[in-house]
Specification:
- Helix content is about 35%, strand content about 20%.
- With about 475 residues, it is of the alpha+beta class.
- Among the domains are: about 120 residues, Uridine Diphospho-n-acetylenolpyruvylglucosamine Reductase, domain 3 (2-Layer Sandwich), CATH 3.30.465; about 110 residues, Alpha-Beta Plaits; about 90 residues, Alpha-Beta Plaits (2-Layer Sandwich), CATH 3.30.70.2740.
- The strands form four sheets. A seven-stranded antiparallel sheet has the order 15-12-14-13-17-18-16, with helices on both faces. It has a five-stranded antiparallel sheet with strand order 5-6-10-8-9. A four-stranded mixed sheet has the order 1-2-4-3, sandwiched between helices.
- A hairpin with a 4-residue loop joins strand 17 and strand 18.
- Helix 13 packs antiparallel against helix 14.
- The radius of gyration is 23 Å and the shape is globular.
- It starts with a helix and ends in a 14-residue tail after the last helix.
Amino acid sequence: MKPEQIIASLKTLVDDGKVLTDPADLENYGKDWTKQYAPRPLAIVLPKTTEQVQAVVKFANENRVALVPSGGRTGLSAGAVAANGEVVLAFDNMNRILDFSPSDRTVRCQAGVVTEQLQTFAEDNGLFYPVDFASAGSSQLGGNLSTNAGGIKVIRYGMSRDWVAGLKVVTGKGDILDLNLDLEKNNTGYDLRHLFIGAEGTLGFITEATMKLTRQPTNLTVMVLGLADLTNTMDVLQTFLKTVDLTAYEFFSHQAMQHVLAHGQVQAPFDTEAPYYALLEFEAVSDQVMDDAMALFEQCVENGWVLDGVISQSETQANNLWQLRERISESIAPRTPYKNDISVVVSKVPEFLTEIDQVVNEHYPDFEIIWFGHIGDGNLHLNILKPEDMAKEEFFDKCQQVNKWVFDIVQRHRGSISAEHGVGMVKKDYLQYTRSPAEIAYLRGIKQVFDPNGIMNPGKIFDL
């Protein structure tokens, strides 16, 4: 079909005015937070129901039209970029909370529900949705699940997939599947729900999700500690975990904090400078927990692991301390950072990080490296900042070589090239560093079963 015929047909499948072709809309909906690929979609479709999604998918199968899902467009691996004339299905209008069960502590949502919207709904009902990250104000649930998003509280609460009771999906064939029926116990063969979580829309599109909720945390308290050495991150973590149940354990380098401070609105936690900082969060449910935390802090200082530290005395102060970590991405954004999201088992983190840092500094001493991440679960964010006098194209070319060195180290440490951001287009050429040839063959086979015509987010994770 000709492009104008495709657009005309799509307009018959959704509500009036919900097929967009204006250049500004194509630009907006055709990209995510990556800057490596120019968006070039054919059209944007804004469905309102699962049935409308199904109608579009069936039409796309009949006419071999490639589809790309679009949520909050906060991805960092180009998993939602439409760069090759695809039709984008944007879930912005599928943004309703459909049902809530206080006794089951579950809430059924459409895929376009924003993370913060779900968090607020849970809080309003005396409960808690614990998956949290910096993009919570714009990221959408469908996208979170399609990349199995993690965030800042994985050490206590796990990844997105751990909170999914059930899914409704439209497969690449156009079938509607209601997966797991929201059951806690359901041992009836393969759990297809988990195939779609983390699949980046390559098997089908998530249209609804039933999410689990939990109790609200009590008196969350934050400590920021200045560390004498990178290896002290593990010393402090192991010491605190023996006594205190942490809800978060983050780290960032001094260079990272300097960018946050220069950006304004945030103050240094204390006068002492340290090469690295750890941020710990825990529930201070009693005076005994606070006494234990202070005793552990003193022990870490006596052992020479911690140079200085501060503990929040109020919710406001706790939120301010969190800004030191959460504002890093925002503060370095003007420098066009090249981002890598990698992981190893927690015990290997110091050696792993040091080895990567040495390799990048050796080959590109003029590149500024910013480290931060969810070190309590082994997830590190490597950000290389573009020199101001270097063209973006030259910078990204050099970073491709950095990828090779970094992923060689990842593979040697049996780690992952993408801890929580997905593969998309940015990392698909490096999939073999984490997945074996046999695994990749099985992944391709699964793709063929659910999407035999290859129309669902083609070119993401791997090429057919």
